[in-house]
TrEMBL record:
Pfam families: DUF547. PANTHER family: ELECTRON CARRIER/ PROTEIN DISULFIDE OXIDOREDUCTASE, ELECTRON CARRIER_ PROTEIN DISULFIDE OXIDOREDUCTASE. It comes from Enterovibrio coralii. InterPro entries: DUF547. This is DUF547 domain-containing protein. Keywords: Signal. It comes from the Bacteria. Residues 1-24 form the signal peptide. Residues 93-203 form the DUF547 domain.
């Protein structure tokens, strides 16, 4: 009969198994209460505070939009916190769908920055969250219309199932170098289409989106985790990338394909 492993080794093995399963992408699963709108309401959300933060702390360096977390002043952290309070005090269902999309994307990105700042310095967002968790995505981070929400709720139970637009993956930012860039401009009901196309173009033409090295094509793990949103097979995914890619087209690629993602913090 095999002896049980010592406690310390058992814990180590459990941690290694957890690490090997580090990121399991959630499925798109509609939260029905959020799939409502008032298209007759011409009012818009005020994202000026978020724009002030972006203007001051987003640093463009090569293919990356970095966020200068270490430079954020107490007054600007308070400005960010107040922006989130302002947004979450409103019920987005009372607004048009265009306004709602901008609301959710900006809120997701602002909450992510807030999470990092609350724990800074930190090397990776994956270090946040509860014991044995891989990041904070399943933690309750806000409350809207009396409901607690997580980042995963916003992305996978609201944005993805309601709008069914693969460009959402280029818009929400997870504070990591491998992630599509945090937009320099706050989303609004008017500029969403332009910003989504710009984000898609930036990512698909960057090395972190798709990089060719000889006979090997390295794609962002986003296309593996959320392949269902980009197409029903690998070639369909490549075709979806080509829509925004200016360089060598990928559809029909017959060489090796691998996936990669850099979880290091997106800071200068």
């Amino acid at each position: 009969m095999r002896k049980p492993l010592p406690f310390g080794i058992s814990v180590f093995v459990a941690l290694m198994l957890l690490a090997s399963q580090a990121f399991a992408a959630p499925k798109s699963d509609l939260w029905p209460m959020w799939n409502q709108s008032n298209e007759a309401n011409a009012a818009s959300f005020d994202h000026q505070k978020w724009q002030q933060i972006l203007d001051k702390y987003v640093v463009v360096k090569g293919q990356h939009n970095l966020f200068n977390y270490s430079a954020v002043t107490p007054s600007d952290k308070a400005l960010l916190d107040q922006y989130i309070v302002d947004l979450t005090s409103l019920d987005p269902r009372n607004y048009s769908k265009d306004e709602q999309f901008a609301y959710w994307v900006n809120l997701y990105n602002a909450l992510t920055v807030q999470l990092i700042l609350d724990e800074y310095p930190v090397k990776s967002i994956t270090k946040l969250g509860g014991f044995l968790s891989f990041g904070p995505w399943d933690d309750d981070v806000t409350r809207i219309a009396g409901k607690k929400l997580t980042l995963n709720d916003i992305e996978h139970r609201i944005l993805r199932p309601i709008w069914n637009d693969e460009r959402i993956h280029y818009a929400v930012n997870c504070a990591s170098l491998g992630c599509p860039n945090l937009a320099q401009t706050a989303f609004t009901g008017e500029n969403t289409e332009e910003l989504l196309n710009e984000a898609a173009k930036q990512f698909t033409n960057s090395d972190k989106g798709a990089k060719i090295d000889g006979n090997t094509l390295t794609l962002s793990s986003i296309y593996e985790w959320y392949g269902v949103d980009f197409g029903n097979n690998e070639q369909a995914v490549l075709k979806a990338i080509d829509v925004f890619r200016d360089g060598q087209k990928l559809e029909g690629w017959s060489g090796k394909i691998k996936y990669d993602y850099d979880w290091d913090l997106n800071q200068p």
